[in-house]
Amino acid sequence: MYVMSSLPRHQQSSAGGVFNTVVKLCVTIGLGIATAVFNSVSSNSSGAEYSLKPYRSVFWFSCASAGVSVLLVPFLKIGKQGLKAEDVLEDDNMERNGSSVDVEPKLPAVVESSR
Description:
By secondary structure, this protein is an all-alpha fold. It is built from 4 helices and no strands. The two termini are 50 Å apart. The mean pLDDT is 78.
């Protein structure tokens, strides 16, 4: 949500689409690697005593992936949330010129009846 709220209004839907695409690709790649780990460990082990070994290997892969993610957190730079003053002015100018789509629904006027 931070990424989408830090961009101008006319770019927020594109940022949301890119964000969702990246998340789905990362989940798919992670699941593929976890499946490869599971299959390689289960094909190398045999017997009832090693039935949990593939699951343990996938668990440790997941822990290692989470650890790498935690190590990358200090490199994130998150500034102030919200729009910059220039972006607000740009959005206002676009709305005045009719370049932007009006997202607020126009409600019909309420007519009061006199009884």
